[in-house]
Amino acid sequence: MTTVDGVLLDVDDTLVDTRAAFEAALAEVARVYLPEVGEARLAEVVMTWRADSGGWYRRYTRGEVGYVEQRRARANELHDLFGGPALDGDGFARWDAVFEAAFEDAWRAHDDAVATVAALVGRGLAVGALTNAAVGYQTRKLERAGLEQVPVLVGMDTLGVGKPDERVFHEACRRLGTDPARTVYVGDELDIDAVAAVRAGLVGVWLDRPGTRRHVVPEAEIAAARSVGVHVVATLDALDGVV
To answer: How confident is the model over 33-81, as pLDDT tens digits?
Structure first.
């Protein structure tokens, strides 16, 4: 394997346990807006939000819709499914305030994140984050999670598009100061993280934490990803076998 000089990391559900933060945020949303949703159905609410079957967040990362537009659309789709009120502009602003307060309060690093980052930096590797959210927002998230040593190099507001666009990977490598071919990218989504990184000329790693997939990933898709060079790990600790 090519010698590695740097490691780029996704933020949400790679470094930060965003799934757990979504659970906290949506529990508060359900308490305020979806009183008919009991605790037993909260997991379904979280799964629906993370799956984003309408593809709104990916439309945002392609530059087709704005951030507020995509989140309001997802909130209304959630309410349609679980019996909440329709949200107009002002109504959504209040909804989003409820969501964000609980969401931010629940930002925590994954158990393996801090030690892994420290180990990578200790080996003299350049380390940074590439994310499909805004740089400032993700910087605050990493700071809140105790990962302030990871600079957010590229976000949605850097080039106006996000992963899987090859340009964001190349720009992140430029800012990291490494050649793409000698840079590892680690993320929790097979297609827009690991496969896209390989297509952009990086070493792509899919972090497939047990029980955390947003949707079903066919075995054929995983096999195809492996065939083009994608590495698959279950924890960040396992990066030692790749980096």
So the answer is: 998 888 889 999 999 999 999 999 999 999 999 999 999 999 999 999 9
Question: What is the CA 229 to chain-centroid distance, rounded?
Answer: 21
Amino acid (1-letter code) at residue 103: F
Residue identified by tokens 């499909």 is: 132
Three-state secondary-structure class, residue 31: helix
Q: What is the pLDDT of residues 122-160, one digit of tens each?
A: 999 999 999 999 999 999 999 999 999 999 999 999 999
Give me the mean pLDDT over the 182-203 stretch: 98
Q: In terms of Cα–Cα distance, which of 129, 97, 102, 93 is closest to 6?
A: 129
> Can you tell me the distance from the alpha carbon of 242 to that of 197, in angstroms, rounded to the nearest whole number?
15
C-beta separation of 163 from 192 below 8 A: yes
Q: Coil, strand, or helix at residue 187?
A: strand
Burial string for 68-93 (b: 16+ CB within 10 Å, else e) reads eebbbbbbbbbbeebebeebeeebbe
Burial of residue 136 (number of CB atoms within 10 Å: 0-12, 13-18, 19+): exposed
